[in-house]
């Protein structure tokens, strides 16, 4: 691990000011990705900006027909928060399957979304629910936020503050986890929203993506049978020692059906 300065601001404004003054500084939330990178000397920030002291990033509220989750809310808190469990139970259930107990008690929703690991769960939920990402500067629709593997629309001096999730009529999630790492090999989040049916996939490709053909099928007939025989193309899907692109395509097909069953 290389030497770095350490800051612990108490407000978003203070954190953003540090980022603006030092382009090489990095914000850190739960540290589940950044800390291992630092230990292996894969990253060399001039300073770490610890966001754990910013109370406004830890709130969960309901505003109209939306649940607003602060960027520093931990996976465990997403899984157990009564407001989230009551309004979007599929999101809470999904958070309860992330990693293991230690990861869920340290990792944060905002950190996961800003990192955009292909196997992360939240991107699929954000796309399927039509979420909006709120930063210190602007609001970004989920469709425009995730740009590719480990890449988002966030600018270097921009800080994710919260994510706004519209409350769906129905939603469900299903995934196949790698038995060793527990990372998702393919996960599918389905939601019946005010804007129509939305289906999003994580783990199978380089970034989360939607399945328009599955959305159309479920729009016409909301049932597991509607997507049971709907194949997913293997083009552009991940292929590695854990599973081929064809295997992941099959998983997407199976998980879509299971997610609809989970939604009810």
Write structural notes for this entry:
- There is one protein chain.
- This protein is of the alpha+beta class and 264 residues long.
- Helices cover 35% and strands 25% of the residues.
- The chain is built from 12 helices and 14 strands.
- Strands 4-5-10-6-7 form a 5-stranded antiparallel β-sheet. A 4-stranded antiparallel β-sheet has the order 11-12-13-14, sandwiched between helices.
- A hairpin with a 2-residue loop joins strand 4 (60-63) and strand 5 (66-70).
- The longest helix is centred in the C-terminal third of the chain and has 19 residues, at 245-263.
- The protein is globular.
- The mean pLDDT is 96.
Which tags fit this structure?
5-stranded antiparallel β-sheet; alpha+beta; single chain; 264 residues; 12 helices
Assembly context of the chains: single chain
Indicate the low-confidence ranges by residue numbers: none
Strand content: 15-25%
Counting DSSP E segments of at least 2 residues, the number of strands comes to 14
* Overall SS class: alpha+beta
Mean pLDDT: 96
Total count of helical runs of at least 4 residues? 12
Query: Order of strands across the widest beta sheet?
Result: 4-5-10-6-7
Order of helices and strands: EHEHEEEHHHHHHEEHEEEEEEEHHH
Global morphology: globular
Query: How many strands, which pairing sense, and closed or not: the largest β-sheet?
Result: 5 strands, antiparallel
The radius of gyration over CA amounts to: 18 Å
């Amino acid at each position: 691990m290389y030497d770095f300065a350490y800051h612990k601001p108490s407000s978003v404004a203070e954190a953003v000011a540090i980022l603006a003054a030092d382009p090489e500084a990095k914000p850190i939330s739960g540290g589940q990705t950044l800390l291992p990178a630092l230990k292996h000397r894969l990253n060399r920030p001039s300073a770490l900006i610890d966001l754990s002291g910013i109370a406004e990033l830890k709130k969960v509220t309901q505003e109209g027909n939306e649940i607003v989750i602060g960027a520093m809310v931990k996976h465990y808190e997403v899984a157990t928060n009564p407001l989230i469990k009551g309004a979007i139970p599929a999101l809470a259930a999904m958070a309860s399957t992330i990693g293991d107990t230690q990861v869920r008690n340290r990792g944060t929703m905002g950190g996961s979304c800003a990192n955009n690991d292909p196997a992360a769960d939240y991107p699929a939920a954000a796309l399927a629910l039509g979420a909006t990402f709120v930063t210190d500067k602007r609001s970004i629709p989920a469709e425009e936020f995730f740009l590719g593997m480990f890449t988002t629309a966030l600018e270097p001096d921009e800080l994710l503050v919260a994510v706004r999730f519209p409350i769906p009529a129905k939603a469900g999630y299903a995934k196949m986890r790698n038995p060793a790492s527990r990372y998702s090999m393919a996960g599918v989040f389905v939601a019946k929203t005010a804007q129509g049916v939305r289906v999003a996939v994580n783990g199978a490709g380089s970034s989360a993506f939607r399945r328009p053909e599955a959305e159309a099928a479920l729009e016409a007939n909301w049932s597991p049978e509607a997507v049971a025989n709907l194949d997913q193309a293997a083009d552009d899907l991940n292929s590695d020692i854990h599973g081929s692109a064809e295997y992941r395509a099959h998983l997407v097909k199976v998980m879509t059906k299971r997610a609809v069953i989970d939604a009810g």
